[in-house]
Amino acid sequence: MARFYMQKGTHKGLYRSIQKTLKFFQTFALLEVVHCAVVRTSVLVTGVQVSSRIFMVWFITHSIKQIQNEESVILFLVVWTVTEITRYSFYTFSLLNHLPYFIKWARYNFFIILYPVGVAGELLTIYAALPYVKKTGMFSLRLPNKYNVSFDYYYFLIIIMLSYIPLFPQLYLHMLRQRRKVLHGEVIIEKDD
Ligand SMILES: CCCCCCCCCCCCC[C@@H](O)CC(=O)SCCNC(=O)CCNC(=O)[C@H](O)C(C)(C)COP(=O)(O)OP(=O)(O)OC[C@H]1O[C@@H](n2cnc3c(N)ncnc32)[C@H](O)[C@@H]1OP(=O)(O)O
Question: Domain residues of the chain, as ranges?
Answer without folding.
Answer: 1-184
